[in-house]
Amino acid sequence: MSSTRAAAQPETLAAKVRRDRVALLFNSYPLSIGMTFAVAAMFVWVHASNHPSGFYLPWLAAMCALLLYRSVSVWQYRHQPAGQTPPERWLRSIRIGTGLTAIVWGLGGLLFYDPQHGNMQIFTVLVIAGVSAGALNALSADFVSYRNYVVLAIAPLSLLSLAQGNHMQVAIGLLILLLLVFLLKSGKHTADNIDASLRLRYANQDLLEDLKQQKQHVVAQAEAMISQLVASAPVSLWLTDLDGKVTFVSSNTPDNACTLQHPPIDACLPEMFRNDDRVTEALKLGLAGHNSVFELQHGKTSLEVHLNPLLDEHGQRQGVIGVSIDITEHKHQERELAYRANYDQLTGLANRSLAMEEIQRAFKRAERSGTMAALCFIDLDNFKTINDTMGHKAGDQLLQQTAKRLVSITRGTDFCARISGDEFIVLAEGLDRAELAENVAYKLISCFRPPYSIHGRDVFASASIGVAVYPNDGATPGHLLQNADTAMYHAKETGKSTFCFYTASMQEEADRNHLIETQLRQALQNNEFKLHYQPKVDAITHRIKGAEALLRWHSKTLGPVGPEEFIPVAELAGLMPAIGAWVLRKACEEFASWNGGNVEQLHIAINISPQQFRKTDLLANVTEALVSNDLPAGCLELEITESLLVQDAADILNTFEALNDLGVQLALDDFGTGYSSLSYLRKFPLQVLKIDKAFVQDLGKNRDSEALVHAIIAMAHSMRMQLVAEGVETKAQLDFLSNNQVDLIQGFYFSRPLDAKEFRQLLIDYSDRPLLPASTQEARPAASSA
Asked: Which end of the chain is least crowded, N or C, by CB within 10 Å?
């Protein structure tokens, strides 16, 4: 039973190759046996003729017995029932037969090798070498058989020659060994080639079989598809003869009740076609040899109908072939694509493309009615913060709820759209005068005051709105939208959560900013930036402890441009990472040159923009600047603003900690003017706190400012942070700060910002004494006011 199951199993590739190798061996066996007998007989005859001995006949008898055994194996192999005996058994028989034959040849070499007769030695070597080489053809299909044959036949003769001791015999023995190696390598190479050839043959057979099966499968599929095409495709087909009578209607034609018994055409055509004049006319045209294509709508079904003359193989008209294609899904997709092209998928509002078209149509309506149209450009003030802190899903909910609020508060004649990200527009038409747009803007601002409900939390999101009125502020949709955008940015700059109407001065400011941005992109390449340094002075000893590096720009085109003007533009244009990297390198380079490099008691403070922190490898840049200028990390102080801390990102905290581990001082600039929170001071490794000049300048004038400064000083001392007061300009301010234990003073009271050369001279002049107030210092050349 088990053998039956085994026979039923598919034969493996290895088994097939083994079977073919056995067949090759047995096919060459008869010739091999015959040649072996002939050579053995001649071998004995020659030796017996020259040196009669008693060993020849027994040796020949043993050889004949082996050859008979091998002949019987051949007969059994050829007369066995197909597949009855596994190939392993026959391979084993071959290896035994050839191995014993080789042993007899090897024994013959030992017995008949005559050291005293050189001719007989040569004859013996040639015969045994010849039968070994000749076996390559007969046994190459099985390297094991060939290897055993060659080694057993030749090796004894080689060892015998080597044992004779004289030079000639040793040489013959070595040559026989070399021949043995050569024959083994040749046999291995031939056996591998035969094996590879057999495997390739079966691989090709399998490939041909696969291709055959695939072809049969494809043909079967094609036949099945063709047989089902008319019935299953969304295509209806009917034929008429030259008299216009229907001869065939496909089974899937809707409302088909045709019996194909040449009924009248109106009884056989689908119901949707029977009473349509276009079908009747198209049938007449088809019978006359003309083509027709048109669309029909039947309920929710849309059809594309083709009516063409039906021609035979000779081009003669035989009637009309009608084809109707169901294009309902295609029409649905067209409508879907049209919707996607014109509407925002998230909010359902019109998108920018449709908005521009609607604004153009509003212009025409305003011209006809003699009214005005107000375009309100809306930008959410803190969308990015909500998106970053609460996640994109929360941001999506905020945008969706904003869209609903805008739709709910606007009139039916108003138009709302989302044009990008967190930017929306509302177009209000039919205004008799421009001032009425203010009511629209107030209404829009008010709708953002209630909190949003996102993930179960109340979230506040204000908006800045810019208003431009047609026709006063723009004659084209793009111009009006641009001016409304400009007004929106002005609203953001004036405090957010408000609205601004477009004015010509705003455009001048926008043009100025565009010009600044254009020139900024070339400023680094043109070497237009310089650094000035303002001393930081000990509040008690008045000794110089360091300086803050301040960026100055003198444009070749615009002249001096103040940092309060060009830095916001650089941030919006994304240029601060490159500019900040230059400031870091330049400040460290100039700082290293002060006082002959003796800067251990001084430090240099450098402002780092949020963009530089997020978009560059700040740690690597700082390390490179310190190492290349041979500066200790403790002399560098990096000033950051609270807007960076409020992002509360893990990578920002990691960079802070890495800088702190390096030894760089970290300072919080302009504390109290932004998103002040004690949690930042506790969470981030900050060592220095800077009191903004907005609080310092009111000391002695405003008790609230004094109380706030007192609170900041007490808090910093409790957290063991160093305090720096900037913007100190009067003796009264200095006294207040020094009396309240502020550590360092920075401001015009001691010095305005100086260029590198002037600051170095200041260090030399006051290297061993307190810095005098600026009013009492010796006059020095004025630095650029830029």
From this structure: N
